[in-house]
Design goal:
This protein has eight helices and eight strands. The two termini are 19 Å apart.
């Protein structure tokens, strides 16, 4: 598997997309979505220059942590997180990207308080209004932001979204543009308190260049780095967070 070559190719595409948008490539962070990858593959990716890993599944994340697979890189949790698994994630990741409900936010706050730490997080927006996906609506977002700012043990760093699957090239640009406007609106509304809100996570292997054009600061890329994933045999639904 040519991981080093794939990383270089993806970074070149990120750089080109940033420059087309009049942005500096350094503004965009590549998050390697390591779902179903082995610890050995993760280590190879980090050795080849990956600085941020994004994990979808709690069980896999815990196994890789025990194996010290993420050494040398920051760790984000980018998948759907159930409240009963919050204790396995809070305090163990640098950024929790997928907080999409008040119930989950409250659970994260409680666990962070128990550990006497502050957990950085992103609020997930269901920008396409899809019943099959988690996240708050654009209309619900301000209230969740307000609650987040009241808590002492979480730190709001920005927003995350997974737009609907597009059947046409550039079909997600409108959703990315809406997310960027929400991001700007939240930062503006928070004023000085919004200085630390600097992350907009959107875009995956099939559309990260469009996401960058519309203002993404984090792109979650899996297949373009690691190749097609082997089939999952869990009997559950496939997580689509990368």
């Amino acid at each position: 598997m040519p991981i080093k070559e794939n990383i270089a190719a993806v970074r070149a595409r990120i750089d080109a997309a940033a420059r087309r948008a009049g942005r500096e490539p350094a503004e965009i962070t590549l998050v390697a979505a390591t779902k179903v990858q082995t610890s050995q593959t993760i280590r190879q990716a980090i050795a080849a220059g990956i600085t941020v890993c994004g994990e979808n599944r709690v069980q896999e994340m815990c196994a890789h942590l025990e194996d010290n697979a993420y050494a040398g890189a920051s760790l984000h949790f980018i998948g759907h997180l159930q409240t009963n698994k919050v204790r396995q994630v809070v305090g163990r990741v640098d950024l929790l990207e997928s907080v999409g409900s008040l119930k989950l936010l409250e659970a994260v706050e409680r666990q962070a308080a128990k550990l006497e730490l502050v957990q950085d997080l992103l609020l997930e927006v269901n920008i396409g209004g899809e019943l099959s996906k988690s996240g708050v609506s654009a209309q619900q977002l301000p209230a969740l932001v307000e609650q987040c700012m009241r808590f002492e043990h979480v730190r709001l760093r920005g927003l995350m979204a997974i737009p609907p699957v597009s059947a046409t090239p550039r079909g997600n640009r409108e959703f990315f543009a809406k997310m960027y406007q929400l991001y700007v609106d939240i930062r503006t509304a928070l004023g000085d308190n919004g200085r630390g809100v600097d992350c907009l996570s959107m875009g995956m292997s099939g559309d990260f260049e469009d996401a960058i054009q519309e203002g993404a600061t984090l792109v979650r890329v899996g297949t373009a780095l690691f190749g097609p994933r082997p089939p999952l045999h869990t009997g559950g639904t496939v997580d689509k967070h990368q």
